Amino acid sequence: MKMHLRKGDQVEVIGGVDAGRRGRVLRVLPKKSRALVEGVNFIKRHTRPGPKNQQGGIIEKEAPIHVSNLMLIDPQTDEPTRIRRQRLENGVRIRLSVKSGEQITEASS
């Protein structure tokens, strides 16, 4: 499945409980059409004590959110934008911001 997001992109949530919040994409799950965004869509997990977590208890962590509820932040205008793809003469594919028309630089992971 084609994804308009990549790891490291800055995104804004446009739907759901966390609408309006911004964060960085930590992980992309293309088969499920979801992305894990830093600081968004927290869930509580009840965990048993184990080697990693000696005490156990209730842990809050981010859960994946559907990509239809996310919009990429245009680095030039600092506003949410849609993405257009374009192939250059040398065959390289780039992502363009629909709002500003500028190329979106590749996210540094």
Report on the structure:
This protein has 109 residues and is an all-beta fold. It has strands at 10-13, 22-29, 34-37, 42-47, 57-62, 65-66, 70-73, 80-81, 83-87, 93-97. The protein has a six-stranded antiparallel β-sheet, with no helix packed on it. Strand 7 (70-73) and strand 8 form a beta hairpin. The protein is elongated, with a radius of gyration of 17 Å.
Brief summary:
The protein is an all-beta fold and 109 residues long. The protein has strands spanning 10-13, 22-29, 34-37, 42-47, 57-62, 65-66, 70-73, 80-81, 83-87, 93-97.
Question: What is the secondary structure topology, with strand pairs?
Answer:
Elements: E1 10-13, E2 22-29, E3 34-37, E4 42-47, E5 57-62, E6 65-66, E7 70-73, E8 80-81, E9 83-87, E10 93-97
Antiparallel strand pairs: 1-2, 1-7, 2-3, 3-6, 4-5, 7-8, 9-10
Pick out its properties.
mainly beta; elongated; single chain; two-stranded antiparallel ribbon; six-stranded antiparallel sheet
What's the average pLDDT?
A: 90
Strand order of the largest sheet: 6-3-2-1-7-8
Q: List segments where confidence is low: pLDDT < 50 over at least 5 consecutive residues.
A: none
Total count of helical runs of at least 4 residues: 0
- Proportion of beta-strand residues: 35-45%
